[in-house]
Amino acid sequence: MLASNIFAPPQNVNGLQVSLDSLQVPAIGNVSALCNLLELLLKDDVFRPAAPAFQQQQSSYWSNQQAETHPACRVLPRSPKEVAAVYLVAAFFHCNFAVKGGGHAAFAGASSIQRGITIDLQRLNSTSVNSNRNVTQVGAGNRWIDVYQYLTPQKLAVVGGRVSDIGVSGLTLGGGISYFSGRRGWACDGVVNYEIVLANGKIVNANVNTNPDLYWALRGGGNNFGIVTRLDLETFPQGDMLGGVNVYPITANASLFEAYQDFVTNESQDPDAALILAFAYVQGTWIANNDYEYTKPIAKPPIFSKFFAVPILSSTERITNITDLTVELTTYNPGGFRQTYLTATFENDARLQQKILDIFLEEMDPIKSLNGSIPALVMQPISKSVIAQFSKNGGNALGLAEAKGPLMLFNLAVMWSNAADDEKFYAATSRVIQRSISLAKKSGVYNRYIYQNYAAKGQEVFKGYGEENRERLVGISKKYDPEGVFQRLQPGYFKLGRF
After folding, report:
1. Given a cut of 80, is residue 29 above it in pLDDT?
2. Distances (CA, A) of 455 to 63, 69, 212, 276, 318
């Protein structure tokens, strides 16, 4: 039972009075009654399932599994104080809740909740850069498109997502791979300060000087420590850059793997380069594609020379800006489908790449033509130059060591239309990941790391950070959330396993 001295009303939460007794509502017997109470607190910012706005908000989730998970009400706070007030009400009455930033997770319940309360942060959408043009304050309800559209005209950028529709807070709390990672690390490494609502309702900052242990934990520790309401991001000059997608026939896979190996071998010598190599079944045929970026406006940089030598079916290669490139990649990640992600990490090994592709093609063959099916196998390097950035400002929680690099991040990303086919896709994708991990272990190239933003429900993300880091995260969770509210009442996404 939660300690009554933490949540007992009335409370003054950062200047916003939350007095449950003064509302003169009946005792809370169910979540619907709790939604009534929230309506008294926040008036027009609480939405029930019968409201058209509720349905519109549900449809903003990327995956259908999340969109089909219906809370008793959705609450759209307009400030961190209101976030704290809603959270305290839910915690006092032991009500399960979810927090939604961009809503781009694949599985049900990640940032949605059945019959509980969803706290939707979309109205925390302010963006401002300081006078020195080196820090941008970003509300946790923003998506990356909002940030890039604000910064690009100013010739500025931050270490952020590669898909425009993904939320800022979720991607960053899980790590956050970026086109700028070679020089600046992942998105979590570019955060200079977090504003966060703690379990006791207080709004505090976490940075290298204030609450530095919490600052470390938030850099990869997910939603286990509170509700992040603002992120202050390191900002740097950025003009146009090279990018685009080259599409190849699937028969080019051997040449592409050779080019991938050449890239990985030399990537640390040119940290302006980034790539995503993928194989997918699209419109009745298997294809390969390489999404590559170079953070300077240079056509045909030598780091990609072996890729340029492989004959293509089509290309969108061009000099453009970060906003345009992230919008393009969003077209390869459409919403409105059922989705599943799974992930694993391996040491770089060309033979393993080919074997994993063979497994993927074999397991997907019986289901590749089912309604709406688009199975994709994605491979991305984690170079030594990227991992070297993970030690900035006290380091992050991910548990990756430069000595283990370069690594290959493997992502199985599959979408389909019919819920009746769920088990077929879950079973097939599970076999792909398990067979791939088994091969990697036999070859001595398996790495325990599990990238949170690509993980499936049930994958043990924090075990993959290493036992020392996991125990440190648990200790920080106990310090800032002694009653385990964010472990017990916010069940979605990946938990530390404290209880």
Report:
1. no
2. 14, 19, 27, 17, 32
Per-residue confidence band for 2, with pLDDT thresholds at 50, 70 and 90: very low
Of 413, 423, 481, 422, the residue nearest 453 (C-alpha): 413
CB 348, CB 381: distance < 8 Å: yes
Residue with tokens 């548990």: 399
Phi, psi of 108 (to 5 degrees): -60, 140
* Helix-helix angle 31-42:80-92, to 10 degrees: 150
CA angle 404, 390, 214 (to 5 degrees): 125
Instruction: Say if residues 128 and 137 touch (Cβ distance below 8 Å).
Output: yes
Give per-residue pLDDT as tens, 351-375: 999 999 999 999 999 999 999 999 9
pTM of the entire predicted model: 0.93
